C-alpha cells in the first residue's frame, strides 16, 4: 500500500489486442523530525515505478496528472534485464491491483476506482 504524489504525467501504451498498460512514478515522503537532543532529521522521499493494466490504465490515462495524490494497492515485482551495453540491470515495480485518487475532485467526478 502506497500513498504518494505522481511525479510526471503517466506513460500509457496499448499492447496485445488493445490492452492498456500505464506506468507512473509515485513519490512517497517520510516527513522529517527533530530528535530530543535537537538533531534535525530531514524529509526522505522514495520513488516507485507503478504499473497499471487494463481498466486502471485507461482511468489513469484520462484522469491522472503530474502532482495528483494517489493511493495504490498492489504487489512488488522484481525484474532483471540487459541494457544496450550488455550490463545486467535490476528493476523494482509495483503492479497495482487497486487505486484511489486522493486529490480534490475536479470536473471528472471520479474519486475511487477498482477494476472489477
Automatic annotation (TrEMBL):
Keywords: DNA-binding
Pfam families: SSB
Tree of life domain: Bacteria
GO process annotations (BP): DNA replication
InterPro entries: NA-bd_OB-fold, Primosome_PriB/ssb, ssDNA-bd
UniProt-recorded Gene Ontology molecular function terms: single-stranded DNA binding
Gene Ontology CC: nucleoid
PANTHER family xref list: SINGLE-STRANDED DNA-BINDING PROTEIN
Subunit details: Homotetramer.
Record's protein name: Single-stranded DNA-binding protein
Species classification: Bacteria, Pseudomonadati, Bacteroidota, Bacteroidia, Bacteroidales
